[in-house]
Fold each of these.
Amino acid sequence: MSINGQSGTGPHEFASPTTSGAARPVRRAVIVGGNRIPFARSGGAYTKSSNQDMLTAALDGLIARFGLQDERIGEVAAGAVLKHSRDFNLTREAVLGSALSAETPAYDLQQACATGLETVLGLANKIKLGQIDSAIAGGVDSASDAPIAVSEGLREILLDLNRVKTLPQRLQVLSRLRPRDLAPDAPSTGEPRTGLSMGEHQALTTAQWNISREAQDELAFNSHRNLSAAYDAGFFDDLLTPYRGLAKDSNLRADTTLEKLATLKPVFGKSLGAEATMTAGNSTPLTDGASTVLLASEDWADAHDLPKLATVVDGEAAAVDFVHGKDGLLMAPAFAVPRLLARNGLTLDDFDFFEIHEAFAGTVLSTLAAWEDDEFGRTRLGLEGAFGSIDRTKLNVNGSSLAAGHPFAATGGRIVASLAKMLQAKGTVEGRPARGLVSICAAGGQGVVAILEAL
Amino acid sequence: MSTVQPVILGEMPSLSKLYVNAAAQTARRRVLGTHNGSNLPATSHEVRGVRADVGNLTAYQHLIGLTARDTLPAGYLHALAFPLAMSVMNRDDFPLPLLGMVHLSNHVEQRSPVLFTESLDIQARVENLRGHRSGTQLDVVAEIRGADTPDIKWTGRSSYLAKGVFLPGIDKPTPHNGQADFTPPDPTAIWHLGVDTGRAYAAVSGDFNPIHLSVLSAKALGMRRSIAHGMYLASRALADVGPAKGETFTWDVTFEAPVFLPARVALAITVLDITTAQTPGEGWQRAEFVAWNPRSGRRHFSGSVAPL
């Protein structure tokens, strides 16, 4: 029996026996493993599955893989970008519907496409500070089962109707109803302050950085080739649980070729002065899916006889002023990574894996171009020159969002679990632990990046 | 020029009555073939103790894309003073036909922030009657003070053109200085304006000028379709500039091709900011904006915002 009367889960339930919180040393937060369901193109296998369905499915697989039945986890954090208002406690509801102990607390988090990675960082910090010993980070999104709101006109009428008391007043409120008020208000990927879709924003950035169609198609081709090879090698065998008849990401085109990609018509940036280069092939499709990551203190993992794949070293968030065109909407990671690396005394040469989320091929290539640009380095990053370049053979080696798809909040968990596994397999490099960089751009001009290291 | 005689009105004039009056006046002048000379009335109209209606303010803020703060937006103050400006131009001794006047440009100085709870004295006058290559133009100047205080908190100068109206003695058209070629920059925003944009702004601003309301009412005044209010467009651009401009600023806009509704309008905001890595957030100098039709490349309006 533990102090607070809830059923105990082992000798390491409490972080530290010290009496003063301030004296508690910062400890490591490790990634034990992860589980996701295959990602499905919207309107596909998961069309009728809700966010809660999919998050629970991913959670179920994680619980089964690591034997977490009846386990009271320190905290579960997850989120969805497209969220129904009834899902205000989405993560807690998923926990209640899972085999975890019902005494496991949970909270929802939302930071657009960075949601998944931010849950990892927030929970890892709690573990590092000794506030919790175990945690599950996650994310889910359904573009198929997206919330549809009533129009602003109908919403105001319904709310006003609720406020008036008498029948004549109600009739008067109802008389304001017009046919156009009945048209629903569907969510869009448009930025509220600019009215531009994410693709249109990226098309501007892609043109500004002179990213060619060929370079974008090549990145997309590599994503499909790498993801396909990873499936063939069994890489996802312990990272994924089949769901609704799907055992692989349905967006994956193992047989795609550069020639096929070159035939696709541009979909974004057609009204710009520059040539339009962004196609459905080098942009991510709307996707449904969910992912989870199990985090723990080293003691908790050891006590439960669970693997320790990698540690969460550090993370950084950044944001840019895209509203006034100062930087591209998805360019925040170009600022977050240099700050993060400087704080940790690292350069791009110190990494063995780069996981740069492929919102669009143009996003990855614009970020790399900015880092290689002398003027950007000097004027925007405050460096002596260009920030640096990466070894492209270390980039998204097991595929990324262009091939797997991108259920917004689920992408962070997909990347973190995969990278942790890759780092553990790599072990040490030149006497130091293998090291990986995660970079995720997000709506609102935001970006979250993180460093993971093999143990 | 004689000194301006103030006329204090008991209450804010009703814009709808003014428009009806203006239509009747236009018809009368057309039938009788009369005009009212070549001088502007040397009279200012003033209303004292004006207060903003908070519900109307909130509706305005949300329509423009502003957060509903307690300070009155510069564009809202323009709307608040607008009935007075109209009433001066609706006087019998005003020499130009009010209906069909084109808003050419607008210069606003927000000299101190105004809270929605404040009681305000608002005054408007017309001045600077002069030729234009395609008619006659003038300025309407509005000033807003705190009730019974001398300091001007807000002032706006709007230039209007009476197209095709040439008054005796004012026949010196300003030389056409050739419109510079406009190459659209990369947009920072695209506005999707529905057909009801004019009606929605009319509802919050009170400006029910028929050219903004519907295709039919616009056609009655010789427009092929209804057009967006210039001040709606300029206010949205000001909103997009954001709070970096501070509480006191100047706001200039020049209108060119009208925005026929419905429309897609491309906007580019350029911020001159000398912020460096060493002085974050300290270098905001000014913002410039330009809007155009993304299909034709025609410029709709352009302007700037700078701290006062």
Amino acid sequence: MNEIKIIAGHFLKITFRSRMLVTIYAVWLLLVVFAAFTGYSTYTTQNTLRTQLQQQARQSWEANPDKHPHRMAHFGSFAFRLKHPLSMFDYGMESYTGNAVFLEAHKQNTVNFSEAGFSTGLLRFGEISLSVLVQLLLPLVLFFLGFHTVARQKENGTLKIVLSQGTGLGAVIWGNSLGLFVLSVLFLLPVAVAAFVQMMLQQQLPADGFVITRGLWLLLVCMGYLWVVSTVAICVSASSTGSRAALLKLLGIWLLMAIVLPKTLQAVGSAVYPAPGKFEFETAVEEDMLKIGDSHNPKDAHFARLKDSVLKAHHADSIQQLPFNYGGFQMREGERLSAEVYNQHLKGLYNTYTRQNAISNYAAFINPFIGVKNISMALSGTDFTAYRHFQNHAEAYRYQLAQTMNELQMEHISNTAPAKDAKPLSIGKEHWTAFPDFRYTHQSVQAITQQQLPAVAAIVIWFLFSFAFIYFTAASAKVL
Amino acid sequence: MYLLAFSNFIRSRSVLIAITLFLVTGVISLYIGSRFLQKQQAAVEAVTQLQQAQIERNVKNVPDQFGLLMYYLRFAYINKPDPLAALAIGQQDINNSIQYLTVRGLEGQRYDTGLFNPYNQLTGNLDLSFVILFLFPLLIIAFNFNVLSQEAEEGTWPLVRIQAGSAMRFIVQKLSIRLIVVLGLLLILLALAVVIVPVPLNSKLLMFSVTSVLYIVFWFAVSFLIIALRYSSAISALLLLSCWVLLCLLGPAMVNSYLTARYPVQEAYSTFLKQRDGYHTKWDADKDKTMEPFFKHYPQFSRYVWNSPKFNYMWYYAMQQAGDDEAAGDSKAMQNKLRQRQQLAEKFACWIAPMQAQLALTDIAGTGLQQQQQFLDSTAAFHESTKLHFYPRIFTDGAVSAENWAQHVPRYFKATAAMVPLFAMMPLLVFTLILGATGVVIFRRKGAAYTFQG
Amino acid sequence: MPVILEAVQLTKQYQEYTALRQLSLSIDTGEIFCLLGQNGAGKTTTINLFLGFLEASEGKALINGIEVRPNSNATRQHIAYIPEVVQLYGNLSGIENLDFFSRLAGFTYSKQELAAFLQKAGLQQEANSKRLAAYSKGMRQKVAIAIALAKNATVIFMDEPTSGLDPRATAEFTAICKELAAAGKTIFMATHDIFNAVNLGSRIGIMKQGSLVHTVHTSGISATELQQLYLETI
């Protein structure tokens, strides 16, 4: 134990003396400041803008005069997706997912205006967020700082002197891993501080965001990940014949894990579980919609049957005798059926996406980078499930809006058309303000943990595996 | 002697492994590309069928009201990808390449996105352009970083110096062997693209190839400069890799962040809101207030009667038009911002080779923002002409059966000619020459003696 | 004098090549044993086996009666090793290097004590705080000797310690070795330097193709005679 401490301290002493570290750390700090600033300004600008637009949309909703509720169902509303505060740390998929959706009766619109749609194509090179720095770039830095540790001592024979002092190879690997890990924590420190400052600068954090809980989990996961990276660097260094071989091996590992595998796995995912394109999807939805009939079409057979049965149930001969507005009733029924069909299709589509992504999720067992990335995106509220959560929310709100308007119509609108030149059928505008505005909530930490169970398990296994890796490397690595 | 050196290089196990890995990755990228094309083709077929079926059904369902019928009918406008798009998918998996529009307000529908798995978009496509832009430099670095330092570290340098007369010629020879191997790899992959995708042998493919070759030569120039500095293998590798991280990851990402911050497109959202309010508030306004601006916009329709006792669709479409007209300012501002982003990106690209190559490759393949902008502009023109075709029929409530519905098949967008790539690649060429020349100067100044640094 | 190093039929076999064949040898405390032989004769292999860096194919190596494998860590308590090229940490000073290696062996010394070891090993005091990168080969060797002293090693293995040293450094080195032996240390040295071996060693072994062919006491042999024997052997 003592030896490990001495070697770790020695590694740090040597590394701190090298001019290279000063340069790398300076560049690192610049990058951290850049990423933190960009993340902060994107979050602040976008959330302010979106909150403002949400209010603006609400104002014009409330500004509507007395009118027929069905007009209001078509006037509709907007849902703007608010970012989670931790999205300042990890942008995740936010640049690719839409941010605003128009909500109206009868129609499920797409969530539009993703940042990627406005991008010049540069987005394809990736983004610099604090999380990218920690998860993608820092491993590369650690590989640089760690590749020569044991390998070079092996090359020039220092290792033999070290071992002849009575130290085991295991202690050498442990010590250097620990030293490199401490170094990685020194690199993590400004990131954590930057993220903390980002949060503190916000006037208020959403209460359901659980920023502190999520943030602490993130920190823990990142530290576990950096430990794994550190041990990999040292074990590869110890098992290589020379520092050049160690460097090439580590670079190969980095390239494979961080760049090539994530892309390839998603390609595999979408090849194994092909998802329909927009028009295939629309065609399928329309086919099923046609089966249930068109609530706007008075000649529609399904709705003609419905009318007969309703009249019968109320012992009425015509819709004028019904105690409620029949048009509203029919549209409520239509909305219910069409929403059911659409949501079923959408659920199918999203389940396909989830299956595609599951390949990446399980790949965390062979690639800790993917695991930490998934957990980090989930905790930052920037992954696919967070997006799906928003879309479900927006759809639920849309449905509620359409059905509330239909019910208002049933309740307050006469079945008899007004005389020509008379005031058109309408209800008071107080009903508009009575209908609540769209409010977005974030997922609970528990839900996220459940979704990310495979990735969490993978990281835990990687963490445990790192000890086995040290043990086996120490047992099998050749000193000479 | 050259041949001997060549086989010495190519026979090394690690080189063979690297080449095999790149061939496999390259072939995977080609399959990914051709799958992309197939998906696009499937989408084109799906929308063609959908349009035909919807026209048929709605014409049958609504045979008597042209205005109501046109509420439902949608018309496809397609940006069909060039086969070359399989090699450089660019933004094409994000952008909508098919617009399926009604003659109602354009702004409310032109930004509708397709259905995508955002995780796929986040990881991006492993297409050939990615292999060339991202991975080839790493291969070049791995081949070159110790070309000189290895000789010194293994002690062969003094011997080589005595035997080989000119040190410069020796190094150039070693580098040229590696260049031939990398270019050979590129050539094989392009040839495979012609077979697998298949990409037609045309001038676009030639432009694509020339750009790729230039880009590869650029990285050789970078390697040469670093080699000329004569650091140890480890430090050379570190420097080259830092170049790669800077040029391929950090540089473009920082430029992108800057562009996003410099030109935020809030107008996108306000267009969205204005379009809705512009249209919907007209229901409660005096009808004259809607019709006046409409006739101002389209004086040719002022002779039509709109205030007949029956519900008139002219007023309805005029309200739709009002939505577009009121959002027009923001819509234009937004497009201007996107154009500014594109222009500034091009300026930055002159300094960052991978960015420049990326923009060039996607422009050649027609998958960049430039062509997307053209497509969006052209979509507006398509929407306008469809509208103008149907407006008189709606306003006169013409007979639905009198229209030749068979002619309303999807229309295809034709891009105007791409830029002159050789001119656009000038900065890359200039950089390559400057780096190479600097390398030569440094190499000469350092003399033939190998001094170990770092 | 008690036996400190012992090799019993020690053999190191690589697939088709025998690096060391049936070496049996015992060395007493306080001896300076010099191993002569051409490159590839098995000298370094013998040292590596005693150090526990290699596993013997047959036979065993014992230090102070304890078998080296599988007790390398225990046997390493008593030994020190000075390789042909002493590569220590270039960015640390001599005193810092000594401190690090002593701590590894479980000894914590004050600065004065460390300086005393360096002085005892023959290093000029003003060199203590200079970075090791600026040291000559002889100076680095002295740091390695100081490491051995600080560890209080009973056996010091040296691999061609005098190769590449200038005559003065060689003379200094020889003097220090004699002092060490006088203080009861055992030195086991592989060398090419016949004259130095005769001058310094108490016993000399001559190896050829993995076998120990001769063992002679230096008391009864002159340098010229030894050279004669060496050349005949190989």
Amino acid sequence: MAKQQLLLIGHGMVGQRYLESLVAQGGREHFDITVLCAEPLPAYDRVGLTSYFSGKTADDLSLVPEGFFEEHDITLKLNTKVDAIDRAAKTVTTNTGESLPYDKVVLATGSYPFVPPIPGNDRDNCFVYRTIDDLDAMIAASKTGKVGTVVGGGLLGLEAAKALHDLGLETHVVEFAPRLMAVQVDDFGGGLLKDKIQELGVTVHTSTGTQDIVDGEHCTHRMNFGDDQHLETDVIVFSAGIRPQDELGRACELAIGERGGIVVNNHCVTSDEHIYAIGEVALWEGRIFGLVAPGYQMAEVAAEHLMGKAEQEFAGADMSTKLKLMGVDVASIGDAHGNTPGCRSTVFMDQTAGVYKKAVISECGKKLLGAVLVGDAADYGNLLQLCLNEMDLPGDPSALVAPMSDGAPLLGADALPDTAQICSCNNVSKGDLCAAIDGGAQTVGDLKACTKASATCGGCSALVKQVLDSELEKRGVEVNNHICEHFAYSRQEIYHLVRVGQITTFDELLEKHGSGDGCDICKPTVANVLASCWNDWVLNKPHAGLQDTNDYFLGNMQRDGTYSIVPRVAGGEITPDKLIVLGEVAKQYDLYTKITGGQRVDLFGARVEQLPEIWKILVDAGFETGHAYGKSLRTVKSCVGSTWCRYGVKDSVGTAIQVEDRYKGLRSPHKIKMAVSGCTRECAEAQSKDVGVIATEKGWNLYVCGNGGMRPRHADLFASDLTDEQLIKTIDRFLMFYIKTADRLQRTSVWLENLEGGLDYLKDVILNDSLGMGDELEAQMQHVIETYQCEWKSTIEDPQAVKRFNHFINETAEADDNLAYVRERGQRRPAYEHERIELVEEA
Amino acid sequence: MNSAVTVEWKAICSVDDVLPGTGVGVRLPSGQAALFRTRDGNFYALDNMDPFSHANVLSRGLLGSLGDKRVVASPLYKQHFELETGQCIEDDSVKLTVYPVRVQGDVIELATPA
């Protein structure tokens, strides 16, 4: 049977979710899918739009997995706006003049920002806050303007205000209603929110309507309010609510609601059975849902219906929200305004601390109907579950909002029913998490990967962790992070024991805190921790036997038992003379030579007994060990920066060398890679490193916890516009905190993903010194830096150590006679097993 | 004792040549052995060839214990071999040759089939 033609009109967050759901159900077998997207970019995270201002790129915000369209053979047409749908002929026509036939159409055109009909609203530098293009235009306008104003004090309006504030403009918010976020919070909450936002330097004008916008005296515009009040401003952003983008539906005479929106049934089918509508364009039982989670639910329902499954129906959605607005936590749950007949409220307010909490309780006093939280939304997860699952309140209702009252009814994850929705963005229930745990998920990272829980806004991550811990415990999985059978401790605990107990050898630690002889897991781990703390030479007698072969022979063992040699080339900068030395050594010992990804040279095929003599030549020529074998700092990659590049803003090579020299030899839970880029073109690929530094005209931007390799992760922007001194201080603290708290062999990316509180917590600890350990971390790093030694220099100067490099203890002049090589592309490599047999036969 | 099998003891090195908790490679007329000294001062010897990688590297493996068994871990792919018996813990079908070791005064001797 020929495939049917499916057209998806609009490719936003909901459209992308629809595609993912459809292909997961095998939709490609029945449909040829074409996506028509009016924007120049495929789906991106509109919820995270504000982060575009704080350094995220359009790529970071993209929601489309790489290769998604190619893999599923879906046609994507960008910059393609649909002009009309001809329902009789079953075709659509586009602005590119194309006419496309269809069997089914899905409308996911979303909404557009409502611009109030104020005279002058179409002047230059008046924007809406909706697309990346809008943001680019705001950024351009902010370069010449000084004052920015947002019309509308709702959720998106405050996001827009944050954006203007971040762009360095004097920022105002003008709201017609008497309070901010009128839909979600009450008067007290709104008042407190206003105070907090004004403290941050944004002026809020409530109960203020704009009559017209005219030329200003000092600024581009003058906004005239009633009562002779006015405000001068250069940039205006309208954020006064949304309206469904329903013209296509209107033009082809689908059923439309009185105030807009394409009417859909419980399966998201419109009045034409061949056309679906999902997301913010769809009107369900007279309501438009302006949040992403209900849109996702509609996407799932519509995709299932298209595939002939009608069990799932859209049944409305909970509009509870939690967000951080300019650093202020705000949450709204259920009946936040207490509209239910007979309900009563219990309120806690602390103006000095800036906290307001209200719980709306049912007439019977047993159920939570709604809540408002401002300033402290830590209880959001608990309260939401109580409300959504209509659970009986565990005790006195006032304890729901009272601060730290004894016996405050902390709702354990245990108490939740399996149907409880934990992640509303991705509709993951407690039952889904339990199934994933039964399937082998052991960490929050695992759950995130297989269920998408906490993968969108992250608001539920603490709850996900609670469910995980309690479920693992229930299953009798001893939540055991002991490093091995010899030590009943995690790596973090071992680090602590070593630090606090001033323990300097493995034997001492084993005697005091362990059992047995140790093994190939705990010995290298403890050796690594000892080196992080005390930085003794790794081949000192008490430590030598603990080292994995790579650390013992200070090289990387290859598949035939020989080693590779990687001298340090800080920042990738090398003189011709030193490069010639590398070439001569490689030639003399017939070493296979390859340039590494970290901008250095790797020499392969050195036999163990050759290592000291080769390194003697290298050390004499001024080289140091590159620690390519250690769980330690590898390289700091750099682009050439202002040294030569016509676009270079700062001296990236100089900084890379400074950073590499500072942290070289630092032993850590896993290898550490860094990079420094001299401008935002980012040629050093710093955002794929554990620590990435990018020069800007105002200083250095620091990114952390990126990764390439098996599980790529974009680094997070950690701090902006740092001076040289601030940069070093921040990296010092960051690295030492990682070394202090990470698990064995845990890269910074996974470490951050499993860190409770995530990036915000990490920023608090490192930048705001919330644990008061900043000085200590810096001092510990200083010790490591001051005690640096080149391990190869120390080794070749110690005849006893050099002796250990002999292949045979009894015939020291002999080499391993079992090695066999094949020449390929002008160099040698170890023979494979089948080649080896041929070689032996020939001999 | 089975008097039919005769062994030849061969002097290898002095006790101090092997650090406690490490191994060294030994050249034998018939091939290569790995000689280990455990933390408590006992000596063991196995084949030096790692049967999984066919490289002569077992002398460079880490020593340790798993339960009450003393083992060496291959430095390449991390399989464990029992020092007493040569048995591979991860693969029942793999067993290394064990060479008897004795200490005569300060000298370590290895027995090889005569």
